[in-house]
Amino acid sequence: MTKRIAVTVVLLAVLAALPGSAVGSGSTTIVLSEIYGGGGNAGAPYDHDFVELLNVSSSPVSLNGWSVQYASTGGSSWQSTPLPDVSLGPHQHFLVQEAGGGTNGAALPTPDATGTIALAATAGKIALASSATALSGACPTGTVDLVGYGTSTCFEGSAAAGAPSNVNSIQRKSNGLQDTDDNGADFEALAPQPQNTTSTSAVRLLSFTAKLRGVSVTLRWRVAAAGEALGYHVYRQHAGRRTRLDARLVPAAAGASLARGYVWRGGVRVPRRSDRYLLQEVRLDGTRAWLGAATA
Length: 296
What we know:
Structural class: mainly beta
Distance between the termini: 54 Å
Largest sheet: 6 strands, mixed
Shape: globular
Oligomer: single chain
Low-confidence stretches: 1-19
Strand content: 35-45%
Strand order of the largest sheet: 9-8-3-2-13-14
Order of helices and strands: HEEEEEEEEEEEEEHEEEEEEEEE
Mean pLDDT: 86
Number of helices: 2
Helix content: under 10%
Number of strands: 22
């Protein structure tokens, strides 16, 4: 019995020392929905780094005393940007502007909070904390939400989110609503789409699939809470390049506050199973947002 206990202790010690630490479950109220660290760099579409939050719950949530914090991939020293005393409504975004690495790119939409943290463009970790006090440790627990990206050694779930770049942010899938508590599965790299508290209500993507038959592809999607949607564009992405499949807008259905299903069919040149198909929402105010991606 003594030997068995000793072996168990050794195994626990080894597991604790393994690289790549996974933290616990994510948030059911406010989540980190988008992270961009290439602001101002060469080729950057925006001149500042930013972190976007989203209230995924059905009730207002106070951000009083909260903070957005950043640390390097394996670092244990955290920098904090305090958040103001505001109540974030259901499905409302919140934009935190951070430092810029240069003068390239356009100005962000009016930020809801401003900090001076210089985020790494391709690897790091961001935490949403319920206190403005700087976190400690390479992989702290007890945060509201946490996202490790690139080569970060701390993340939710089985892997860090993929690496963003100067031209791409990482965005939570399903228009910010997917949260399986696995950073690697929940985020994808897309062109930055910063949204603040005045942004229109987001579409909720329920499903999106692609089926390839010969040179024809069929895209099906189902959305809810789409009252601000004018319609949808569909794209094909191959070798990192996106091409719109149809110049025409797929119009949003009347009474779009209810769940609605859509189908688009068309031909593609040199179809490949590895291609990704992207769905973009076009809103009544003219702004656009990527909703999701699918492979055939």
